[in-house]
Amino acid sequence: MVIAAAGTGVLIGGALDNPSRSTDRIAASAPMSRQVSSSTLDEPMGSAKQVYDETKSSVVFISADTSEGQATGSGFVIDAGGLIATNAHVVGDAPSVTVRIGPDGQEQPAEILARSDSTDLALLRVNADQPLTALKLADSAGVTVGDPVFAIGSPFGLAQTLTSGIVSATNRTIQGLDGSAIEGAIQTDAALNPGNSGGPLLNSSGQVVGINSQIASESGSSAGIGFAVPSATLSALIEQLRSGSAQAASYAG
Prior knowledge:
Blueprint: E1 2-5, H1 48-55, E2 59-66, E3 69-79, E4 83-86, H2 88-91, E5 96-101, E6 108-116, E7 121-125, E8 148-153, E9 161-175, E10 181-188, E11 200-202, E12 208-217, E13 226-230, H3 231-243
Antiparallel strand pairs: 1-12, 2-3, 2-5, 3-4, 4-7, 5-6, 6-7, 8-9, 8-11, 9-10, 10-13, 11-12, 12-13
């Protein structure tokens, strides 16, 4: 059985990657501005269609030219001012990336603000002409087995793809790019494939409970065992950025 990345293409140690293999990393940035979320996110929505319609405009397709070739993956807006979260293995060692936000977004450059091999998370920034709609982070500690979850991303480059399932297990431990333990990972049977890396794992209220990152598979494609970095890990990185304890693009989480 192979544990692989959910980027685009071939699965490699710990992440869902693209055919040419991408390697996620995170870099530090300025304090984040207020998150923007629809009022409907405060009420359970329930259906897959409602969750998708409410969140699709915040999901991002990411393309990065790394030293090992072009990598593609997913991400999502976490701040109205233009901050985007993804996996570190999606952006790899690329100096910059391009993104498309939402179903009708135009390709635009994004700066890599922070990347962390130990948490396999990265933060990007785009220049937003107008405020973006940010997804709200839920408390991943409240996730329980059997909860319905939804994944939106770009498996095999097919942007804005929705899959659904349940939380299969909680408190799993997966590995970061540097071998560090990422604790509290969420296991799900929602279909994840190469290209889903960095996309949001959403609860029935359209809030992010995890960042889709890895799958366990003997074939390299979805076998119904996927893993998401918990939203609490992303929240901790954001707090480090706000406090100034994480600095420079070389920050290694």
